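Mods, move this if it's the wrong board.
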Amino acid sequence: MRRIRPVPVGDAHRTTMFEIFFDLVFVFALTRVIAFMAQPPTALTLAQGLLLLLLLIYSWGPYLWLGNLVRADVGPVRAATLLAMAAIFVAALVLPDAWRQGPGLLDPPLTLALAYLVTRAVQLVVLLWASADDPPLRSTLRFFVVPVTAAWLPLVVGALLGGVAQTVLWTVAFLVDIGGSRVASAYRAWPLRSLDHFTERFGLVLIIALGEALIAAGTGPRTMAPTGAGLVAALLGLVVTVCLWWLYFDRLAPAARNSVLLVPRERRSHVAGDAYGLAHAPLIIGAIYVALGIEQVLGQLTEEAMHTSRLSWPSATALYGGATLYLLGRLVFRRLTLRAVHPGQGVAALLPLLLPVGRSLPALAELALLTLLLIAVTWYERRIDRRGDQVEPARSARP
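Not the wrong board. Structure tokens:
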């Protein structure tokens, strides 16, 4: 009887419609984290939301690598990916109650932990199957199995204990999983078969995350009169999102892809893993926090009497901190791919210093100040790009 084997991908492989569908479910889970942090935002919920975002992002990442090895939309791999998709969807449904224990056996924290375990276990099983006739891949898998499975115990125990213990143990689980995987990748990196597929998947998820900021900017006017401060805030939210899009997709993304393409093939997976695997997480998380901040601004404008009110410190931190995280993640990404970071671009790190200034302003003025700052950053970046200081291959990847 003929054995069913996964379909390997080639150098020209691109993102499939099925993978985009999978990514939409993942981004839906990211948006549910906003619902968790917005009830109402506090320093604790922002920190817990960050932990949830990290767990989600690094449960999605392995499926990108998997889709870069074998076709995710064909045969048993598609069935397994659908199972993982269902687990992520279940996780998304319970995310707003991630720290709320209930009387039932499967309360939200435990359901979320088990859903995470399912996504990771499915990926490991598919990789085990795909590596049956590929000894180097099987060797790489052995390195990764240890930290991935070691993280399951603190994840489940934390869900059972709840409270502070849950936060601490879930943090431990994340550090074991991701830290161990990063150490393992230094010795046995996953093979990168299609650079276009790899960069495209990351870009698509980021642009969908930016779309959440647009959704946040558009939800407010549906609950208020379509005039005045509400529309101004919505338009400012649109401009903020356009600036964030421009700063990555207009020139940086294609230039980074071309730079990584120049890296020798034996080093390409290391460079791509660092640049996209590490630097894209702050970009996605920053976009989600900005969306939360815009949503909070619009929430202050639902009544005419509230037009002069200020954002709370956590809401203002989400707005300005999210933009800062996005800009800093972008600089790290540029450094790892183009090896060109100008001194003036480091000004992004000073953005949090303006938080007290913005906090002293009404919510609408605070959003306007951030908008002006991002317009200035975008203008400066365009000046740099026009000088042609673009592409220098990643030196760390050279033999």
